[in-house]
Amino acid sequence: MLYYISWIAFARVVLTAAAIYYLLVGSLYYRKEIGAILRRSRSTISIILASVFIHYTLYAQTADGNNGISQANTLVRSYFDTGTQLMYAVGAIIGLIGAIRVYKLWTTGHREDVGQAAAGWFGSCIFLVIVATVIKSFFGL
Hints:
5 helices
């Protein structure tokens, strides 16, 4: 079932998430420097942003909205079974990792933390399974 997911699409999502993360972290660490740059070149940045937004606004006006929404609905519904199987696989992997972590805590003598760790890992696995089932029944997929 997982071979329907394109590796290129997966790489795009991962790279986009990484880029957003590093932009946010970079903006937190270099807040003063970014503020100084923005104050110096305020008019240039506003012209660039305006041209980008105008371009996307004009591009959005050429597409048929209803056709796009119905096509997106069809695609999401067709990918849902694959996504559900992916959630079950992620739940299984998290369960295995959790079992190894709990076993490690048990063998190293941290017996007071074993119950809390086991409950947390088991709860995350159950959460993934329940979320997939509830979404499937809620939307009638």
